[in-house]
């Protein structure tokens, strides 16, 4: 029986679209108020969407939703894998799409961009290796900063699995406290300073340039783990407090970043910082309700219904769509506007084109690369041995369940 939680697929796709629309219809012109954009400036169409700003400016909160989903999914994956299987599974999942999308981005910048070719080479190498670019470097595409946070979280999970002593609960508690302290401190500091103050900028630096430290975003991954645990058993009173802390910490992070946007960009000065918090909270509530229903089905011994195959496909499309929408998608919009389409129509046509391309990538191209990677690793004798379930590390002991019960409940997640 496949181990897959179906609700996450359409939710991931919806948040990816939200992030894409944010970059293409808001950040593409609003960046001039608060900073310097990435390489997408070399291929961007000279169009503005100020009337759409009230509906697009908060799309960045999709990243915080992604991180909660990632905490849930990675906890699920770690519970049914050995450390070697987990690491290989992450590599096979992440690298093929990165190699395809980073190469496509480089080609677009070289062919259609106005910047010097030498400017793109080092960021391209960093992207292909998934190596953080550092605080002062440049991303090949600005959206790649989230991969630094993701890989840092995967590394924590892998180290916890190797230790054979640290459980999911330990990891969730550590991230909960670690991130909550930082976000509480940040909220206090930012409420007493202005965007021009050095301390204000240092605090914000940990959101994107120093994302690998997980100071801002550790709470979102922790919340995902807690929600996964809640899908298997009732949380204790202390664990419910931890969930409340991660929610407050996450809301604080979203609030102070939203406040930075609202203060720095005149076009949205009349908007409320509560809007992205409400969008994020609605997504979290949806995951929590689904987790609760799954736990009730498990307790009753009822298997979860099969999800439509296209939902799974939406989930697979999400990753290449996220990686390609900013530079490649922006270049397509530019081409469509030059061809005579109005700016708004160009965005929607481009999204349809990009989704179709990403469908081809995830269903046709990625499997070929993944198969080649597996064959190569197997050839060099480095393919992890798939151990019998009874001999695998009991990372699921962090759920507080007896191993057979944990295995049964985990197997029912779809």
* β-strand number: 0
- For the termini, the CA-CA separation is 9 Å
| Poorly predicted ranges | 400-414
Report the C-alpha radius of gyration, rounded: 21 Å
Overall form:
globular
Order of helices and strands: HHHHHHHHHHHHHHH
Please give the count of helices.
Answer: 15
Share in helix: 55-70%
Strand content: under 5%
Record keyword descriptors for this entry:
mainly alpha, about 0% strand
Any overview of this molecule?
This protein is an all-alpha fold. It has 15 helices and no strands. The chain has helices spanning 8-30, 53-56, 62-79, 83-112, 118-129, 145-163, 168-191, 198-205, 218-230, 237-264, 274-300, 309-324, 327-338, 343-379, 403-412. α4 packs across α12, α10 packs antiparallel against α11 (274-300) and α13 (327-338) packs antiparallel against α14. The protein is globular, with a radius of gyration of 21 Å. The termini are close together. The model is unreliable at 400-414 (pLDDT under 50).
Layout of secondary structure:
Elements: H1 8-30, H2 53-56, H3 62-79, H4 83-112, H5 118-129, H6 145-163, H7 168-191, H8 198-205, H9 218-230, H10 237-264, H11 274-300, H12 309-324, H13 327-338, H14 343-379, H15 403-412
Helix pairs in contact: 1-3, 1-12, 3-6, 3-9, 3-11, 4-5, 4-6, 4-12, 4-14, 7-9, 7-10, 9-10, 10-11, 12-14, 13-14
């Amino acid at each position: 029986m496949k181990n897959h939680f179906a609700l996450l697929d359409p939710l991931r796709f919806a948040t990816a679209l939200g992030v894409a629309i944010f970059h293409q219809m808001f950040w593409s012109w609003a960046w001039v108020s608060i900073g310097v954009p990435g390489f997408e400036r070399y291929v961007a169409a000279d169009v503005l969407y100020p009337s759409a700003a009230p509906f697009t400016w908060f799309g960045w909160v999709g990243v915080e939703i992604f991180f909660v989903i990632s905490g849930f999914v990675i906890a699920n994956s770690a519970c049914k894998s050995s450390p070697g299987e987990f690491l290989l599974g992450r590599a096979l999942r992440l690298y093929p799409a990165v190699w395809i999308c980073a190469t496509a981005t480089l080609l677009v910048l070289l062919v259609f961009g106005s910047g010097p070719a030498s400017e793109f080479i080092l960021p391209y190498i960093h992207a292909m290796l998934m190596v953080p670019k550092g605080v002062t470097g440049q991303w090949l595409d600005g959206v790649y900063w989230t991969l630094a946070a993701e890989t840092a979280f995967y590394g924590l999970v892998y180290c916890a699995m190797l230790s054979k002593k640290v459980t999911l609960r330990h990891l969730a508690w550590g991230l909960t406290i670690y991130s909550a302290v930082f976000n509480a401190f940040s909220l206090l500091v930012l409420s007493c300073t202005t965007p021009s103050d050095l301390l204000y900028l240092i605090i914000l630096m940990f959101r994107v340039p120093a994302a690998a430290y997980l100071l801002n975003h550790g709470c979102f991954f922790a919340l995902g783990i807690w929600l996964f645990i809640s899908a298997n058993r009732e949380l204790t009173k202390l664990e419910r407090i931890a969930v409340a802390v991660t929610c407050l910490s996450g809301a604080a992070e979203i609030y102070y970043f939203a406040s930075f946007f609202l203060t720095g960009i005149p076009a949205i000065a009349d908007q409320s910082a509560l809007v992205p918090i409400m969008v994020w909270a609605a997504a979290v509530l949806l995951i929590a309700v689904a987790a609760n229903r799954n736990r009730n089905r498990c307790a009753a011994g009822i298997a979860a219904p099969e999800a439509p195959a296209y939902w799974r496909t939406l989930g697979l499309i999400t990753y290449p769509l996220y990686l390609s929408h900013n530079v490649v998608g922006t270049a397509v919009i530019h081409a469509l506007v030059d061809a005579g389409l109005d700016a708004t129509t160009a965005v929607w046509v481009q999204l349809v084109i990009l989704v179709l391309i990403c469908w081809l990538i995830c269903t046709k191209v990625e499997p070929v690369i993944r198969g080649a990677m597996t064959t190569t690793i197997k050839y060099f004798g480095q393919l992890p041995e798939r151990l019998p379930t009874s001999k695998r590390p009991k990372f699921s002991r962090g759920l507080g369940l007896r191993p057979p019960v944990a295995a049964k409940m985990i197997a029912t997640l779809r």
